[in-house]
Automatic annotation (TrEMBL):
One of its GO terms (cellular component) is plasma membrane. This is PTS system protein. It comes from the Bacteria. The chain crosses the membrane at residues 34-55, 62-80, 86-106. One of its GO terms (biological process) is phosphoenolpyruvate-dependent sugar phosphotransferase system. The keyword Ribosomal protein does not apply. InterPro entries: EIIC-GAT. GO terms for molecular function: galactitol transmembrane transporter activity. The lineage of its organism: Bacteria, Pseudomonadati, Pseudomonadota, Gammaproteobacteria, Enterobacterales. Keywords: Membrane, Transmembrane, Transmembrane helix. It comes from Klebsiella michiganensis. PANTHER family: PTS SYSTEM GALACTITOL-SPECIFIC EIIC COMPONENT (PTHR37324:SF2).
Length: 115
């Protein structure tokens, strides 16, 4: 709590909050994800997986938003930190990535019927 500004510190004291965690937001999480040892093979794998899914007609979603790959990378980094197993982390990260365009296609189908 020593890094909070004076206004934040006054709010904590006035309201009587006892905060133990500070949410640093996406910039810190993004830095962790992009700085993880998973980054290179996972990002290349994402591109290959997305192209394969498009060619096999498993999705119509082109996931070219490379900026937001950090979301998948941070999840893989958490698995790696918890298990110490590099390849398990890569596999789980790929699995989560595959579910994203598949889920997007499912949502598109469900909501298109309701409109």
């Amino acid at each position: 709590m020593t890094n909070l500004g004076p206004a934040s510190q006054a709010m904590v004291e006035r309201i009587g909050l006892h905060l133990t965690v500070v949410d640093t937001g996406w910039p810190t999480a993004s830095t962790i994800g992009w700085g993880s040892p998973l980054m290179l093979p996972v990002v290349v794998g994402f591109i290959v997986i997305n192209i394969a899914m498009l060619l096999l007609k498993l999705t119509k979603t082109v996931n070219i938003d490379i900026f937001n790959y950090w979301i998948f990378l941070i999840m893989g980094s958490v698995v790696y930190a918890g298990t110490g197993n590099y390849w398990l982390s890569v596999g789980i990260t790929f699995g989560i990535f595959i579910l994203t365009p598949a889920g997007g296609g499912f949502n598109r189908t469900v909501f298109a019927k309701k409109l």
